[in-house]
Amino acid sequence: MKSRINTILKASGLIFSAYLLTGYSTTPVVDADGAFTELPEPLVGLAAPYQNLNKVRLDPNDNCFWYLHNGPVEATWLPLRTPQGNPICQAVS
């Protein structure tokens, strides 16, 4: 029963997150890498704190947000995730 409730809560959270992100209807300004110059507030609130929010872009192939992780050897685009580990994606209309 507890597992079922957790699943329902996670699904509800993802649906709510997608709803919030679709509300960001203004055209965002992006830099040369396609990264947002300013992030929508709902996106900032959804993202886990350990991620680089200074360089985030929306991948048109999967409609998910990706952030630039600067590792010790190279920089890599990684999926932006919630504190629970779920990817943050934009709903397709």
Q: What characteristics describe this protein?
A:
alpha+beta; 93 residues; 2 helices
Structural features, described:
The protein has 2 helices and 3 strands, in the order ααβββ. It has 93 residues and is α+β, with helices and mostly antiparallel strands. It has one domain. The chain is globular. The model has no long low-confidence stretch (mean pLDDT 81).
Identify the overall geometry: globular
Integer tally of domains: 1
Largest sheet: 3 strands, antiparallel
SSE class: alpha+beta
- What is Rg? 14 Å
Distance between the termini: 33 Å
The strands making up the biggest β-sheet line up spatially as: 1-2-3
Mean pLDDT: 81
Quantity of strands, as a count? 3
Helix content: 25-40%
Total of helices: 2
Weakly predicted, low-confidence segments: none
